[in-house]
Amino acid sequence: MRENHAEWLASHTEEIIDPKREIIDPHHHLWPMRHGSRYELPEFFADFESGHNVTKTVFIECGAGYQRNSPEPMAPVAETTYVEAMAQEVAQTPARPQIAAIVAHANLTLPIETLDTVLDAHAAASPRFRGIRHAGAWDEERDILQFAGQPIQHLYLDPDFQRGVAHLGTRGLTYDTWHFHPQNREFLSLARAVPDTTLILDHFGTPMGVGRFTGKRDARFSEWQDEMSALAECPNVIAKLGGLAMPTNGFGWDTRDGPPPSSDEIVEAHEKYYAHMIAEFGPDRCMFESNFPVDKYSVSYPVLWNALKKLAAPYDAAAQEAMFVGTAARVYTI
């Protein structure tokens, strides 16, 4: 983050829209130190209690809390233990936003017997354990990306990986993912291969706007629309709507000299993405997310949720309830 980032975000404030509306934020991270900043309970509360009525949240794995020299493949269980301790601390004050679910990490290419050992350990570490994210994000220019993903190409097409994702479904667990837009077709192949596992597509498939895609995001919008429409035909895919303020998407708010974006500016830049996803997936398969603190590189928490409320305004009460609360509550059983 830039120097004096907190002051930069604070340079634009807005009155909270519809402050009583309940929100489940289904995508955030916690970490002791990363990219020069900490995001644990003090930072979490500063954002999540900044005016909007966030009642529950879902933690998504990010490689935090691992123990030094932890043996693979059990190392990710330490992250679940790390987050569960914070969730228990929060639970002592029920009026505060509750960390209601944990999506952990496991290597889904493991033999099933070994994978089950890891999944059982996650379940033992936290009753909030709901699923796995073994993100497929890979790109040929990953070395220039701030959040580069992982080093394995074509992970979604790996038969061992597909077997692991399918196994999550047999255990009633979800699969969250994150990837870059050139991988959308491979993710479609995965979705078709594992029809009995609920897949949650994070961040719109990350329509990139940096590197070789600088200045080209809008030019390929119709292609992205076709990719999302094809994914919407898979009933096991749920759309998590957020993450467009990540630096990789190339809107440039994280580095510009002026103030951070207003909610109106976010709506103007992002509305066509949200409108297409909601039209194709339907509100009952869409959930709004913050992706904090990653999207905090570009926008403050209260301004982001103001933008999401403005984006939701054209839809009826039932649709808004689904996208702010119902879909997340159903998918993550919270």
TrEMBL record:
Residues 24-332 form the Amidohydrolase-related domain. GO terms for molecular function: hydrolase activity. InterPro entries: Amidohydro-rel, Metal_Hydrolase, Metallo-dep_Lactonases. It comes from the Bacteria. PANTHER family: AMIDOHYDROLASE (PTHR43569), BLL3371 PROTEIN (PTHR43569:SF1). Belongs to the metallo-dependent hydrolases superfamily. This is Amidohydrolase family protein. It comes from Rhodalgimonas zhirmunskyi. The lineage of its organism: Bacteria, Pseudomonadati, Pseudomonadota, Alphaproteobacteria, Rhodobacterales.
